[in-house]
Structures are given as C-alpha cells and as structure tokens.
C-alpha cells in the first residue's frame, strides 16, 4: 500500500518513487506486474498525474519498470548484468551533464557530493 504524506518535507514524487522501488526490491511487486495507470494512481493517492508520470519515467530510466504506451507500465525483469546496467546509467548521466554544459571536473564533483550524502 502506498501512502503519500503531504506534511512530509520529501516531495510526493520522491515518496512514490521510493515506495514503488521498495516494493519491487522486496518482491511485493514481481516482474510483469501491471502498474495502475498514471491517472488512476494519481486519483487514488490524491496527487497530480504529472507527479505519477514523472515517477514512472524515472523508474523506467532506472530499469525498474517498462512502459509500453497504451498497454501501460509493468515491473521489469531484473537486469541480468548489473555491470552493464551501471555502465548504461553512467553513460546516460554523462550525456545529461554534457547537455547541461558541465565538464568532467564539475561532473565528478557532483558525483563525489552525491556519494558523500547519506541515503
């Protein structure tokens, strides 16, 4: 069960992302499980559809779910090779940083800062 705490300093998008990811990691949501539509989940949780859409996009980019247009979103199969998934994610991150105009030094500083933050 997903609950969004509107009084929390954590944005609803992040609360939803963390809870769905946790359910996937613990096996509560197994590969192939159909997720609710964006509109339905937004209505059930009392949040904006764009919030759910953003969450689904981020989870898809992370490889946790697959979205097939009108067929909806499902929990993805676990990556067979975590190393390959990590390389793909790193390459995408570098592309995004370059797109923002950041060079290698600034990008590495951001990575170091992120690694130093507790999760």
From TrEMBL:
Q: Which UniProt keywords apply?
A: DNA-binding, Transcription, Transcription regulation
HTH gntR-type domain: residues covered: 10-78
Q: Which PROSITE patterns match?
A: HTH_GNTR (PS50949)
Q: Report the Pfam families cross-referenced here.
A: GntR
Q: List, alphabetically, the SMART domains matched.
A: HTH_GNTR
Q: Does the keyword RNA-binding apply?
A: no
Say if the entry is tagged with keyword DNA-binding: yes
Specify the protein name.
GntR family transcriptional regulator
Superkingdom: Bacteria
